[in-house]
Design brief:
The structure is a single chain. By secondary structure, this protein is of the alpha+beta class. The protein has 4 domains: about 210 residues, Metalloenzyme, LuxS/M16 peptidase-like (Cytochrome Bc1 Complex, Chain A, domain 1), CATH 3.30.830.10; about 220 residues, 2-Layer Sandwich (Cytochrome Bc1 Complex, Chain A, domain 1), CATH 3.30.830; about 220 residues, Metalloenzyme, LuxS/M16 peptidase-like (Cytochrome Bc1 Complex, Chain A, domain 1), CATH 3.30.830; about 180 residues, Metalloenzyme, LuxS/M16 peptidase-like (Cytochrome Bc1 Complex, Chain A, domain 1, 2-Layer Sandwich), CATH 3.30.830.10. Strands 12-13-14-18-15-17-16 form a 7-stranded mixed β-sheet, with helices on both faces. Helix 9 packs across helix 11, helix 25 packs across helix 27 and helix 26 crosses helix 30. The protein is globular, with a radius of gyration of 29 Å. It starts with about 30 loop residues before the first strand and ends with a helix. The N terminus and C terminus are likely disordered.
Length: about 950
């Protein structure tokens, strides 16, 4: 089974044709229904080995809440982690961590309007883990204890999660959602609910929600992994069939997003808004129906082609030298409501340019509506779709269980088809050649109409910005019908990326590392190429090229003139091709490559299918030898970047990060900010950045290349000898250097004030120079994971003061040896002092007594679990074998990791805690602006009044 690679596009304008041949169901999936109505999906999949993924899908979300339950569908999700029949209180998370499942990273859940889904991956390296996973699923489905004590403790955690969403975006959303969700139940049932309900509901109210909706006929259990299907099916029947539905079950109603004749317009601003944007929605007329017949499936492919062609045109505008917006896209797809789809478009713009962006989005749609698409556009779109399906088909036997399981969940919740990638690839191959321009050109006529339209415009509130009015938005639609538009002009077809050349390169030396399974060739131009052939994916090759130096060897003056230009260099394109030309050339190819100049290294990274390896080599060669120089593209990049960054400092979290970075780097003349200001752009020298790039990439002999994946060595060797051995190599070898600048030293507490909402962030950190020690570095990293466990136990589970948070630690060898450790968490400003003391007290316990063995064991099990999975990942190996070039670490570390984990002791962690965390503590705190206490009190009074009104 493979989920479709283009959006499901069938619309209600196309009536379901039940007389057609139905889409088949993937025969490798065992699907059944228990006598109580509970559904199950089971599939054997051996990647990763000895691991299984579970999902519990419940066809219930916030849309079904009663008025006094607003927010309790989500609260119920929380409660399933806070006490069940077999795992009382907080024992569930404790148990799962003990078998290697990390809370939040592996173990998780979500609640939306119409559904609740629980996610659990379980390692099968120990007897009983499969049964334990099924027992967790059973408890989540039916056996939540919902004790008064745990409910009242969890209120604080859920309120902290709600707090995280506060800010300018939420304030604007509260104003425009009533129009987006016009006269619908969805407008009244946002999943996070109402603060006053979460604070004040009586425990029996959530118990009623659980009793009404957590029942077998609304559930499915999904099991995908390295399992015996018949055995799992038997266990599911034994564990789940005994549960009964209520005698008089509540009706599981479906809700719609009503249509309306008028165009609804919302123009909302906020002083703290960080970006400007526009969105339009044109709702479908009827109720959405998923694909059932092959005819409908084919129609969705046609709509997918239209989606690609429209967005390719918008991409050309974005990549032009005069971009109308930073980001822009249109598509047909889902809305907040499961039962309603819509034709939608959105753009991120410069300040005050939202109306123009709306005009351009609509004009491109109108252009396609009037004149249709061109033959070459259709051909490129077909190639793109076919290539995606082909790549998925070739890797069909190497999909991980986590990538497959979502399709089965969607089949249960939304009846989306699950025919499997083998069937889909064959169907796409058969159908695509029959698609004509007549078919694609008729689509937009059905999607675009004059009613049921909603336009939302948002942006910062400033005296010098005049926002459009509702009348101006409506006039834009009227003017569209009279717009003098011309047909789309097709660009010249690009036949090749680089000019033919002859390479005399040779392999002068071959080194084989039997342990790593790598081969290293030294080429006649000095380039080194290390490759590892794997079968983790049948059609994937990942690659990187590294050279030491980066920006560290650029003078302070030149660095400050160029640091913000390096990311813009590729905007000019390569080999005489613009970004748009390059996109056309690469259409239908599963390949990417991009170059960079970093702090200590420069290089290239990318990925490729086997058949597109030649194109990947062309891209690499062009990045080295033929980067375009185009000041206009740099100016366009500045325009787009400025549109995103101009108001970023209005965001309290960004402001906090930026101001604290300025504080700790106040003695570093190379630090001029996290992002460029208008003054920085004026001082930026694009030509100098371009010249630095060309100089660095002129000496390929300073680079080592790494390739990992399903490599055909004969083909690979030919491409290496032609392209990589043909690269120029001039100049002397380089390496990075220590610039000598250091963060400020000494203990301090810094408080930064920003934002109107009652939100704070706390960062407790320890850092400094040291002599690098590999064992200590490993222990300090493990200590971060262990302290994360304690922070969540203490600050979240015991004190109900945070939703999330954690710690991290480690050492770095380069460019000089340092250690660092930090604890971070968001919380309410009224709790900053208390929770900071609690966090540091937990750390002091470890310094004094060492961590508990059970917490170290949890860390070890989680690392074993991740490591075993990572060993079958191409990207993991690429990073591992390249690390030695950068920091001189043992190149065999990737093989010894599990032994290093096993060797860690409680004493090792206590020793590094004592050595590095007993002094030098720095605290940085984000607090809201003065006056937040008054706002909080006013809100509390309003909530009490609202709550009283709700009771009436």
């Amino acid at each position: 089974m493979k989920k479709r690679l283009i959006p499901l596009m069938i619309v209600s304008l196309i009536s379901p044709r039940f007389f057609g041949q139905n889409i088949p169901i993937d025969p490798s999936v065992k699907i059944g229904t228990l006598s109580n109505g509970m559904k199950y999906y089971i599939k054997k999949n051996t990647l990763p080995e000895k691991k299984v993924d579970f999902r519990l899908a419940i066809n219930v979300g916030s849309i079904l809440e009663d008025e006094n339950q607003r927010g309790l569908a989500h609260f119920m999700e929380h409660m399933n982690f806070n006490g069940t029949k077999n795992f009382p209180d907080n024992k569930l998370v404790d148990f799962l961590q003990s078998i290697g499942v990390k809370f939040g990273q592996h173990l998780n859940a979500y609640t939306s309007f119409d559904e609740t889904v629980y996610m659990l991956p379980v390692p099968l390296d120990k007897p009983g883990n499969l049964d334990a996973g099924l027992k967790v699923m059973e408890d989540w489905a039916f056996n939540a204890t919902l004790s008064d004590k745990q409910i009242n403790k969890e209120r604080g955690v859920v309120l902290e999660e709600l707090r995280l969403g506060l800010g300018a975006d939420k304030r604007m959303q509260d104003k425009y959602l009533p129009k987006q969700l016009y006269k619908s139940q969805y407008a009244e049932r946002l999943p996070m609910g109402k603060k006053e309900v979460i604070q004040n509901f009586k425990p029996e109210v959530i118990r009623k929600f659980h009793q009404d909706w957590y029942r077998p006929d609304l559930m499915a259990i999904v099991v995908v992994g390295d399992i015996d299907v018949k055995d799992v099916e038997k266990k599911i029947k034994n564990n789940f069939e005994k549960y009964k539905n209520p005698l008089h079950p509540r009706e599981r109603k479906s809700f719609n997003l009503p249509n309306h004749k008028e165009t609804l317009v919302a123009v909302e601003t906020d002083p703290d808004a960080t970006s400007s944007g526009v969105q339009f929605i044109i709702k479908d007329t009827g109720i959405y129906q998923p694909d059932i017949t092959i005819e409908q499936y084919n129609q969705s492919i046609v709509e997918g082609l239209v989606n690609i062609m429209l967005n390719n045109r918008l991409g050309e505008l974005i990549n032009s030298n005069n971009p109308p917006f930073t980001y822009g896209a249109v598509y047909h797809g889902g809305t907040y409501a499961r039962s309603k789809e819509a034709f939608q478009g959105s753009a991120i713009t410069k300040e005050g340019d939202q109306l123009n962006a709306l005009k351009i989005l609509l004009e491109e749609v109108e252009r396609a509506k009037r004149f249709g698409f061109t033959p070459s556009e259709l051909e490129r779109a077909k190639t793109q779709i076919l290539s995606s399906y082909e790549w998925a088909y070739h890797n069909r036997d190497k999909n991980e269980s986590g990538d497959l399981i979502g399709g089965f969940v969607s089949n249960f919740l939304r009846n989306e088809p699950i025919p499997g990638i083998a069937w889909e690839f064959e169907q796409v191959k058969k159908f695509l050649p029959t698609v004509t321009l007549t078919k694609t050109n008729g689509i937009i006529e059905k999607l675009v109409k004059d009613d049921s339209r909603v336009v939302v415009i948002t942006g910062p509130q400033k005296d010098n910005i005049t926002m459009p009015t509702e009348a101006m938005v409506l006039e834009t639609f009227d003017q569209l019908k009279l717009a003098d538009l011309k047909p789309y002009e097709e660009r010249n077809k690009v036949e090749s990326l680089i000019k033919p050349f002859k390479s005399e390169g040779k392999i002068t030396k071959t080194d084989i590392d039997v342990q790593l399974g790598t081969t290293t060739w030294t080429l006649s131009n000095g380039v080194k190429v290390t490759f590892k052939k794997t079968d983790f994916k049948d059609d994937e090759i990942v690659f990187a090229a590294l050279s030491l130096g980066g920006s560290s060897i650029i003078s302070d003056v030149d660095y400050n003139k160029t640091q913000f230009a390096f990311d813009a260099l590729l905007e000019a394109g390569i080999a005489g091709l613009s970004k748009t030309d390059l996109a056309h050339y690469l259409a239908g190819k599963q390949v990417s490559a991009s170059s960079y100049i970093g702090g200590l290294t420069e290089g290239i990274s990318g990925t490729s299918s086997k058949k597109d390896l030649k194109t990947a080599m062309e891209l690499i060669y062009a990045c080295f030898t033929d980067l375009n120089y185009n000041p206009d593209s740099f100016n366009a990049y500045k325009i787009k970047k400025s549109a995103m960054l101009t108001n970023l400092a209005s965001d309290p979290e960004y402001y906090f990060s930026s101001e604290h970075a300025k504080f700790v780097n106040q003695k570093n003349p190379r630090f001029i900010g996290l992002e460029p200001t208008e003054k920085d752009w004026v001082n930026t020298d694009y030509k100098k950045a371009y010249d630095i790039y060309r100089k660095k990439f002129a000496n390929a002999g300073n680079f080592q290349f790494y390739f990992v994946g399903n490599i055909d060595e004969t083909q690979f060797k030919n491409e290496v000898l032609h392209y990589l051995a043909g690269l120029p190599a001039s100049g002397s070898p380089s390496t990075f250097k220590d610039t000598g600048y250091r963060p400020i030293e000494g203990e301090y507490t810094k408080v930064y004030k920003k934002g109107k909402e009652p939100k704070s962030l706390v960062n407790i950190s320890y850092s400094g120079e040291t002599t690098y020690n590999e064992k200590e570095a490993f222990a300090l990293s493990a200590l971060g994971e262990v302290v994360t466990i304690k922070v969540l136990e203490k600050l979240r589970e015991e004190e109900s003061g945070i939703y999330g948070g954690g710690a991290s630690g480690g050492m770095s060898k380069i460019p000089y040896s340092t250690y660092s450790f930090s604890i971070n968490f968001p919380c309410g400003p009224e709790n900053v002092d208390r929770l900071t003391k609690s966090a540091t007290a937990e750390l002091q316990k470890i310094i004094d007594n060492g961590p508990e063995q059970k917490d170290l064991d949890k860390y070890k099990e989680g690392e074993y679990n991740e490591y075993k999975t990572s060993l079958k990942d191409n990207g993991f190996w690429l990073q591992g074998i390249a690390q030695n070039q950068v920091d001189g670490s043992d190149k065999h570390d990737i093989l010894n990791y599990q032994d290093k984990i096993k060797a860690l002791t409680v004493k090792d962690l206590q020793n590094v805690a004592r050595k590095y965390l007993s002094k030098g503590r720095n605290i940085a705190i984000l607090m809201p602006e003065d006056g937040w206490e008054k706002t909080e009190k006013a809100d509390s009074k309003k909530e009490i009044k609202d709550s009283a009104g709700a009771k009436q």
